[in-house]
Amino acid sequence: MYSSFMTSKPFASSADLTDKQQTLEVLADGVYALTAEGDPNVGAVEGEDFLVCFEALATPVAARAWLDRLREHTGKPVRHLVLSHYHAVRTLGASAFGADVIIAHDDTRKLIAERGEQDWASELARMPRLFKEPDSIPGLTWPTVTFSDRLTIDLGGDRGELVLAHCGRGHTEGDLVAWLPRHKILFAGDLVESQAALYTGDAFHREWATTTLDRVAALEAEALVGGRGAVAHGREAVRAALGQTRAFLGTMLEETGRVRAAGGTLKEAFAAVHAALEPRYGRWPIFEHCLPFDVARLWDELSGVERPVIWTAERDREVWNALQS
Ligand SMILES: [Zn+2]
């Protein structure tokens, strides 16, 4: 029933089948980021005799390719795997790391229990290319250590510490960022994107655009690895990435709020948001893919639906066909 003639645009990222170029950058001694032209970013930080890895990618096979690149720089064992939030393309590759501890926010663990299975099916259908050998996934990833506010990892020797912090609700209920005060390097997860569109289908837009991004900005990072897109190097580029993220959310809130106040419909809100964002963001990765899900969630949020409705493969298609056709 979901044949392609029903929509003029291919569903989500299902037609995006070309591999992206991956770039490994050494941001400081023992601090690594792998970016991939708008595909999900990952990172790693060396402790004295161990590694902290940040994000797990969508499958163990995808994660092993990243670990092979990392192994050209360091052979230290992975002690901690840190997950910025619950989304499948960030978590389901975890088994490849052989980590002693998998760390996430308290609410990320709850979200995996509540909707991890549905999110897995949804993301697999939306972004099949990211799921390299999906049969290599052994099951949902369960964090073994969680926290509510802040957790600090002593990196040993004179390497300083890695601070994991929850800045408030944003991209999801349970986002965390990883902050290296000594180098002023921030791994922001999907709370900040750098020249990539925002996915806000599980978001809390009003908090994200204000208090949450205020807390991220207050760190005054000098290098920022967002969830997708290039590394922002230097204060100016970090400010630009934060500004781009805030402006995307601000435009969504303004346009959707305006249509609602005038008694309009979700479809009209989608058209208004699309028209307002397209000139600046239309060419950025996953813009067309994300926008229907983004506006649908924002419409709910402004209607008083406190927590995001669970995305299932069926609901994905319904919203897509209603808005992107
Ligand atoms: Zn995400």
UniProtKB/TrEMBL annotation:
Name of the molecule in the record: MBL fold metallo-hydrolase
Ranges where the Metallo-beta-lactamase domain occurs: 39-228
Lineage summary: Bacteria, Bacillati, Actinomycetota, Actinomycetes, Streptosporangiales
Pfam families the record matches: Lactamase_B (PF00753)
Gene of this entry: ampC_1
CDD domains, per the entry: metallo-hydrolase-like_MBL-fold
SUPFAM superfamilies registered for this protein in UniProt: Metallo-hydrolase/oxidoreductase (SSF56281)
Gene3D superfamilies (UniProt xref): Ribonuclease Z/Hydroxyacylglutathione hydrolase-like
InterPro entries reported in the protein's UniProt record: Metallo-B-lactamas (IPR001279), NDM-1-like (IPR050855), RibonucZ/Hydroxyglut_hydro (IPR036866)
